[in-house]
TrEMBL record:
Source organism per UniProt: Sphingobium quisquiliarum P25
Listed name of the protein: Mannose-1-phosphate guanylyltransferase
CDD domains referenced in this protein's UniProt entry, alphabetically: NTP_transferase_like_1 (cd06422)
Keyword Nucleotidyltransferase among record annotations: yes
Keyword vocabulary terms for this entry: Nucleotidyltransferase, Transferase
UniProt-recorded Gene Ontology molecular function terms: nucleotidyltransferase activity
Keyword rRNA-binding attributed: no
InterPro entries reported for this sequence: GlmU-like, NTP_transferase_dom, Nucleotide-diphossugar_trans
Origin: domain of life: Bacteria
Length: 236
């Protein structure tokens, strides 16, 4: 049972300005609830018992919010106050807190709603540590609400992933949710780097896999996205 998760919450939230001038992006509210709380509630509902949250921008505010402990799970802070480490560096910095077993990792600015199956449970059932170093939750580009990209990955019939080629469109978008093996968290190129380094290694080894999300997913990256997301959530 994978019951630990990393929640990425250390970014500067530049695209969410001016809302992030005085508050960190994870505490921007959507449908009456902070983005961070949407993510933590989904993780808790999916059986997660420990969440490691990295902090940098307005870190004291995020920590105070976490101390309110309304979620009934263990919340630990990975402190990046001194230096923003990006996603890969953030994972390496939190390595000891995450433990030695596979774990979920989720972005705090993406909001997902379960489809016919509970999302994290579905991912656990598909996860195969003998074949996989990471399992990414993907959403078809056509259903990537409020997302302006051209897709991230192609997925084979068996679930293996490959990158979108330059000047092409790919059919799947990364939702910000994944299962990772701790064996990926080795040999960092520096202290500041992207998770893409880990994914590239997994692709080269044929061990990066994906699964298509059956529910709703929203990229809540800008203020313009918020009323769109709220309207869709209100209408189910």
């Amino acid at each position: 049972m994978i019951d630990t998760a990393m929640l990425m919450a250390a970014g500067l939230g530049k695209r969410m300005r001016p809302l992030t001038a005085t508050r960190p992006k994870p505490l921007v509210k959507v449908a009456g609830k902070a983005l961070m709380d949407h993510a933590i509630d989904r993780l808790a509902a999916g059986g997660i018992r420990k969440v490691v949250v990295n902090v940098h921008y307005l870190a004291d505010t995020v920590e105070a919010h976490l101390r309110a402990d309304r979620h009934g799970i263990e919340l630990l802070v990975s402190d990046e106050r001194q230096k923003l480490l990006e996603t890969g560096g953030g994972l390496m910095h939190a390595r000891e807190l995450l433990g030695d077993q596979p774990f979920f990792c989720a972005n705090s600015d993406n909001l997902w709603v379960d489809g016919a199956q509970e999302t994290l449970g579905m991912m656990r059932r598909i996860w195969d540590p003998d074949r996989m170093d990471a399992l990414l939750l993907l959403v078809p580009l056509a259903r990537a609400h409020c997302h302006n990209g051209q897709g991230d990955f192609h997925m084979s019939p068996c679930g293996q992933l490959s990158r979108r080629k330059t000047a092409h469109v790919a059919p799947f978008v990364f939702t910000g949710v994944q299962i990772m093996s701790p064996r990926l968290l080795v040999d960092p190129p520096s202290d500041v780097f992207s998770t893409n380094i880990f994914w590239n290694r997994a692709i080269e080894a044929g061990r990066l896999y994906g699964v298509s999300h059956q529910g709703l997913w929203f990229d809540v990256g800008t203020p313009r996205a918020i009323p769109v997301v709220e309207a869709m959530l209100a209408h189910g």
